[in-house]
Amino acid sequence: SQEVVQLECVKRAKLGDAVVLKCLTHSMWRYRVWYKQATNKTLQHLSSADYKYTPMVTDHRYFTESSAMETNLTILQMTEEDVGTYYCGIFKSRDVVFGSGTVLEIEGESEPVQSVLQSPEYIRAQPGDSVTLSCSFTSSQHQQEHTRVMWVKTGSDSQIISLKYGKENIFCEDTEEASCVHNLTLKDISSAEDGTYLCVVTACGDTLIGNATTIHVNGPFDLSTTVIALTVSNVVLGMAVVVLVWVLCNYHRKQPIFTSPVFLLFLSTTASSRQDTVVYSEVRNQHV
């Protein structure tokens, strides 16, 4: 079992409240300490105590109670400056063994994880390709150490693909409410990777699930959308040409020669020529 156990991952309280941060010490080592990690990531020493003697504190607002199996830190009146991560530790020989930490936040001001989004929503790939799935979320800076990102493939063969803790391959901005990104890369994929993938983000017991990414790996007979579109358009064009030729052939076959447009045009031209000749002859005779 762990030698130092901090019972609460996150503690939320109102300004002015008294806050008790609990720590179990499953060890008979007598010397205990409390540290606070502020927003700028520096460690601030708050108290030291040998549980058999009066503890030493660095601020009159702090109070430490210790026994053989626990050491609890009380903040008498919470202020905005108290927001941060608190670590309980024990001195063991020359080392200090710390607990996992307790995040102290102002009640109602923030949530551990917000707005988990996945991209892209759909991936079509060829066997042997590498694809990258992205999961982005907003997290309180103090809770990033307690954040877990898990990729799950759903379906009949549901399985956990990846599991990361803390800042292991999770990239976050260095701000109070940080945007974080975790990418999952699948290499040399095959039809076995076909399916829907979910990004599950957990921080201090709060869990949010992303909007899902679907991967489709083309089979040997799959055609791309472009190839399908070109094939269909060529077939339609070919059919249109065949129908047009058939209509024209039937039209000329059924219509007599003397009613065809070409023959009628020939007759019209001939008649006009004859009429011009007659008029010319009449005019000439009158002058003679």
From TrEMBL:
InterPro entries in UniProt: Ig-like_dom, Ig-like_dom_sf, Ig-like_fold, Ig_sub, Ig_V-set
Source organism superkingdom: Eukaryota
A GO biological process held by the record: B cell receptor signaling pathway
Signal peptide range in chain numbering: none
SUPFAM superfamilies from the UniProt entry: Immunoglobulin (SSF48726)
Stored Pfam families: V-set
Residue intervals of the Ig-like domain: 2-88, 112-216
Cellular component annotations (GO), alphabetically ordered: B cell receptor complex; external side of plasma membrane
Keyword field: Immunoglobulin domain, Membrane, Transmembrane, Transmembrane helix
Transmembrane segment boundaries: 227-249
Protein name: Ig-like domain-containing protein
Species the sequence originates in: Neogobius melanostomus
